[in-house]
Design goal:
The complex is a heterodimer of chains A (247) and B (221). Chain A is an alpha/beta fold and 247 residues long. In chain A, 37% of the residues lie in helices and 24% in strands. In chain A, the strands form 2 sheets. Chain A has a 6-stranded mixed beta sheet with strand order 6-7-8-3-9-10, sandwiched between helices. A 4-stranded antiparallel beta sheet of chain A has the order 2-1-4-5, covered by helices on one side. The mean pLDDT of chain A is 94. Chain B has 221 residues and is an all-alpha fold. In chain B, α2 crosses α5 (89-115). The model of chain B has no long low-confidence stretch (mean pLDDT 90).
């Protein structure tokens, strides 16, 4: 990794009261890289992801995304967050708006686009996730997989430099997972930098550039998917991989 | 019996007085309901700032004015403020007292509504770059208001009924005017008329409230 990383997080610590959730995590991600973060629940992987766009405030450390110091008090965090898309486990679509309304809200209110322009961009984003014909539907009228794809469209409409996925398929029925992974795959092919917290090992195997294994607030080991899955060096990684592959 | 409680001649004579009272009750409601909603919204927005230095004083404020009987508050303002050099008149005193009292109630309703919206909604909005205020305005409040609409309407019903307290400080609203007419005619008919008017005015709201409550119940199932 000789080029300047697009995400450069160093020595991230996070305390929740007495709980020490992140214990000094370093994570560098190169442009166009797809990094998979795996680990047992409570290992801190979601918290790490949420620190990167400062949905959680790190207790200490430094985070630079696309050249912007995310923890500098002078940084306009709302401006910075437009460059960092985030997709949540529970979709978090706005239930009182249509799919297009969900996608265009930030385009209009943050990016300052006119309604016509926002609608055009929003429609294009829905097209990219294969839901152009669902623009007028509310989240309640969509399946889980469709909702998650609208959520992805909501993020990519802002043309982010990095996308964060926090267990994007964990809340989905098995038969709906494929459609979401399909969209993620096409995003990857378009060159999007992605950090994905997920247990979709099949997807990790054939789409990830690097797999990061976290346990107990630390990165235990990382490497190409084949190395991590077939040949983990650490006992804890081996135990975790063994566990999830039995399922 | 009918001569005493529903005397047509007396109705005809008292009608202009009672009608002016009705208009004042409507006017008073049109002032105190938006005022209370506005005050309540401010309180709830303040309480959504989790900082203890903001939250605690607001909670104390809300608790105080919910515990304070509105009639006592009204009389205190009306009888007390002149001693502080402030002659506000009955109408303004009612407006202030209601702003304080019903604002606290509306505030609690808005707060419950805001709390009912999952935190993930705000996180999704903030992650796309919306400010805290924008997320509140476009994402949280529309859902919050929808979730507590029956409670807002129910409180509004109470507020309209409470405007009759204005009669105590000589605001010529419906009850006050009816009592004027009653004492002029030595007959309770104007009070009966006022009661009927209150009922006819509020009954559609009560029906609407029942429908909203049933719908909310059905939605929860």
């Amino acid at each position: 990794m000789t080029q300047q990383p697009i995400v450069d997080a160093r020595a991230i610590h996070k305390h929740f009261g007495a709980l020490h959730v992140l214990k000094g995590v370093d994570l560098k991600v190169a442009e166009r890289e797809l990094v998979f973060v795996i680990g047992p629940s409570g290992s801190g992987k979601s918290t790490l992801l949420r620190c990167l766009n400062r949905l959680e405030e790190p207790s200490s450390g430094s985070i630079v995304v696309d050249g912007i110091d995310m923890l500098d008090a002078r940084t306009d965090i709302n401006h910075a967050r437009q460059r960092i898309g985030m997709v949540f486990q529970s979709f978090n679509l706005y239930p009182h708006m249509t799919a297009l309304g969900n996608v265009t809200l930030a385009l209009r209110k943050v990016a300052g686009k006119s309604r016509v322009e926002a609608d055009r961009l929003g429609q294009a984003a829905l097209e990219r996730v294969g839901l152009a014909d669902r623009a007028g539907h509310t989240p309640g009228q969509l399946s889980g997989g469709q909702q998650q794809r609208v959520a992805i469209a909501r993020s990519i409409a802002l043309e982010p430099r990095v996308m964060l996925f926090d267990e994007p398929t964990s809340a989905l029925d098995p038969e709906l997972v494929g459609s979401v992974l399909e969209v993620m795959r096409s995003l990857r092919e378009s060159g999007m930098t992605m950090i994905v917290v997920s247990h979709e090992m099949g997807f990790a195997r054939n789409a990830a550039d690097r797999v990061v294994f976290m346990d107990d607030g630390l990165i235990v080991e990382q490497g190409p998917p084949a190395a991590i899955f077939e040949n983990p060096t650490h006992e804890r990684t081996r135990a975790f991989i063994g566990q999830i592959q039995r399922h | 019996m009918i001569q005493t409680f529903f005397n047509i001649e007396i109705i005809a004579a008292a009608w202009p007085i009672v009608l002016s009272g009705l208009l004042n009750t409507i006017l008073l409601s049109l002032i105190v309901v938006p005022l209370g909603l506005f005050g309540g919204l401010l309180l709830a927005l303040g309480a959504s700032i989790r900082h203890p230095l903001v939250r605690w004083p607001l909670m104390a404020w809300v608790d105080f004015f919910r515990a304070f009987p509105p009639l006592v508050l009204l009389i205190l303002l009306f009888a007390g403020l002149p001693f502080a050099g402030l002659e506000l008149g009955g109408f303004a005193c009612v407006a202030i007292a209601f702003f304080l009292n019903t604002g606290a109630y509306y505030g609690e309703i808005f707060r419950a509504g805001i709390d009912s919206v999952p935190a993930g909604q705000v996180e999704a909005g903030r992650s796309t770059g919306l400010s805290r205020l924008q997320a509140m305005t476009y994402i949280v409040l529309p859902q919050a208001v929808r979730n507590v609409l029956p409670d807002l309407l129910s409180n509004t019903l109470e507020v309209v009924k409470l405007t009759s307290l204005g009669s105590v400080v000589a605001v010529p609203e419906l009850l006050y005017q009816a009592r004027q007419a009653q004492s002029l005619t030595y007959n309770p008919t104007p009070i009966v008329v006022a009661a009927i008017i209150y009922f006819l005015m509020l009954w559609p709201l009560v029906r609407l409230l029942s429908r909203l409550e049933n719908r909310a119940l059905a939605g929860r199932r």
